[in-house]
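Researcher:
Attend to token order:
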Amino acid sequence: MTLGEYLNFVSYAKTLEELWDAHCRQMGGFGFDRLLYGYTQYRTKTSLGDPEDFVILSNHCKEYLDGFLAGGLYFHAPMLKWALQNEGAASWRMINDLKADGAMTPEERRVVDFNASKNITAGYTVSFNSVSLRSKGAISLAARELTQDEVDAVWAKHGHDILLMNNMAHLKILTLPYNAPNRALTKRQREALEWVGDGKTTQDIALLMGLTSATVEKHLRLAREALSVETTAQAVLKASLQNQMFVMEA
């Protein structure tokens, strides 16, 4: 797709699945064949929050994701550290510079060695503008068939368009429902939370949903458990942040 066609497609995308599939194909046209997008709204000074609450989108193989994400290597990744402190785009050439200067920690070196074992050595990282102190989003664009010199040449020619496409995809992702693993709500749980968000009492909700108060309490309890929170107010907030509230049914 041309830039205009892509931006038009993103504007009307209705699901993460169709958006992410198109974005992977679009970036693949520039040589970036492996993408890893991450977003958190629970960042603190010492943590990025519970990994199960991250929005993670990727076309990397399961083996790579198990090692990099589930294995916790991401927390020491040099480009992630850069992304947390900066906004914009950066070439992975900086990793080679760190190695050459002897400025890499043992943990960072383990990440770089793991990536090299999976042929993830050339690429770019985009760090998106944050809308709050607790939010951060970034995407790594890996090009397994290109050298870093070739990647930098692609960026010199098309970087403005690539950055714009990624920024627009990120903004669209923020508006779409995302059901994190083990965090998805059932239709009844979501409906009960929506009525709480509207200020209704348990008794009100029971009448509106045609249920007993005990059943409504059960749905709210299960919603709290699914979202891993302690109070119903926290459940309403987290479900809202994940765009699971007031979802239009297909």
The chain has a mean pLDDT of 89. Residues 3-173 form a domain with the Beta-Lactamase fold (CATH 3.30.450.80). The radius of gyration is 21 Å. The longest helix spans residues 148-173.
